[in-house]
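Reading a protein record of the kind used here takes little practice once its layout is understood. Each number in the token line that follows is a code from a learned vocabulary of backbone shapes. One such record is shown here in full, so that the layout can be seen directly:
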Amino acid sequence: MTDSVLYGTTGAVAVISLNRPKAMNALTAEMKDSVLAALRRAAADPVRAVIITGNGRGFCAGQDLVEHAEKLAGHGTALDTVRAHYNPIVLEIVTMPKPVIAAVNGVAAGAGAALAFACDFRVAARAASFVMSFAQVGLGADSGVSWTLQRLAGLARATELLMLAEPLPADRAYELGLVTTVAPDSEFSETALDLGRKLAEGPTAAYAAIKEALLFSATHGLPESLEEEAELQNRLGKTADHKAATEAFARKERPRYQGH
């Protein structure tokens, strides 16, 4: 990782901060490598929830178009970054066996918005906004947004947002189901961290299974999805968390989860 992506922990919560504030955290190749490295570190570290946020006024302006233009003018392989960077980043978020929160502090555009939509939760500051800016630069959707956006907002709304590429304020994004929570700007950081702490204290093995089941059922029929649920429940039934939770319920006590 480099200074453009910061990694830290607070308790059992990992915080990944995009740190090119003067460029609205636009993503260079070096930065994308660092984001992927940070996500893999979070997956391996003994943390139980992950927050992705941006420093400065923007969450992430998407692809750094200055670097992109330079590569187009050179050997013409600028779009290799989709397979080399964006696809692995999105897959790491979606398949990570830990809850991932996008703490959207400002503008999330293009791949930056897609990064947020790949997360399990999106906490937005009231000043935040989203824009599907791909068409504005003559490109289609990438970074998984053709998959995530229509599942969050429906096909018709996803088509509108991608083709018209009009900015979407945080409150409207919440109305459309794209955002989990909208918080006042002054309370935004603590709201996101509170959610991270709450998830970290929860049954994280169960959360991992929920993510796995949702991802599986998105591309499989009902019979296969029912079997997947049965397999996951068999696995979870052997965990210390399940045993502790059922015993605590019988005693009318609050369970304490260990994440396994």
